[in-house]
Amino acid sequence: MLSPNTENYLYGRGHLLFQPSGVTGLIHLGNVPDFGVTVGLEKDAHYSSMEGTRAKDHEIIKEKSAKSTISLEEFSAENLNMAWMGNGVVNTTQAAAALDGQSVTTVADKFVELGKYGVYCTRMSHGAVTGGPFVAGETITGGTSAKTAKVAWAGAGFLELIDVSGAFTIGETITGGTSAATAVVTASEQVEDVVVTDHATVPTKRYALGTDYSFVKAGGLIRELTGGTIAAHTAFVSADIPAKSLATVNALKSTVVNGRLLFIGNPDDGPKMRVEGWNVNLTITGEAKLISEGISSIPMEAEYLNDTANHPDNPFFKVTTIA
Fold first, then answer.
1. Residue 280: helix, strand or coil by DSSP?
2. Which of 76, 140, 182, 299 has the most crowded Cβ, counting Cβ within 10 A?
3. Cβ-based neighbour number of residue 316 at 10 Å
4. Helix/strand/coil for 299
C-alpha cells in the first residue's frame, strides 16, 4: 500500500524454511523469534585533491553482501544436523522388549550403560497370598483382565514385574504360573527404577535404590554405590524397554551447509512478505546450550551468496509482498 498508511507498520511473524542442496522439499526450522536481512555495502570513495581540504566528490560500491542472523529455538534432529554440520539424520528405533536378569559389571561410584533408554519396571501391590509365595521368574495372570507379566522380584506384599502385557485390573485376582499362588491386586504402576538382584534366575537379594545403586532412567545408566552390598561388582538387571524413535546426527561430517532459504511472513499487522534466497550458506555462530536457565537456542547465520548464473535478475535474494 502507498504510504502513509498504518497498514504498512509491521509486527513481524512468520515461518522460516530451508532446503539443503540436493534434497527435495523444505525443512521447517520451527519457532524463530527474530529474523531479518542485513545488507552489507563496502564503498570506494574518491576525494578531490584540488583544494586544501579534501572533499569527497565520488564514490562507488565495490562490494555488496547480505546475511541473516537466526536463533533456532527448536532442537529438532534436522536443525541440529544443519547446525553441527552432520551428513544427514539417521533414524532408527528402539524396539519394545525387556531386560531379563541381564548381567551387568558395575563400577563403584561410576555409571555404566545398560544399552537401552527409558527403561523402567512395574510395581504391583497385592493383598494376602494364598497357596504361595510368588517366585521370581514365574508368569502371573490376571483372573479378570487376562493380562500377564513376569515376576522379576517377589517382595512382601508386592511384586516387581517385567514383560507386562497390559493393565491389570485393581481388585482382580492374580495367579502365579509356577507357584500357583494367588492374591488380589490393590495397586499397580510403572516406577522409575530397575530390578537389581544378586542372581539372574533365582535371586535371593534385591539391591536397594539409593543404598546399593543409583539409576538414571533417560539414559539407562546404573551406578554401584560405595557402602552398598553389590558383591564382586556384578549385578543382574531386569526392566521393561519402551519402544522409542531415535534420531542420530554424526556431527562435523560435512564441510558446508548450503541450500535455499525461504521466509513466509504471517504477521497479525503489516504486509505479508515472501523472502527467498537461492544460494545460502548456514553456519552456527555460537554455543547451542544443552543446559540453560531459560529456553535454549541455536545461534545461526545465513549468508546469501551470488547466484547470477541461475537467477540473473535477483542473484542474492528476492522479496515479494504476498498480502
1. strand
2. 140
3. 20
4. strand
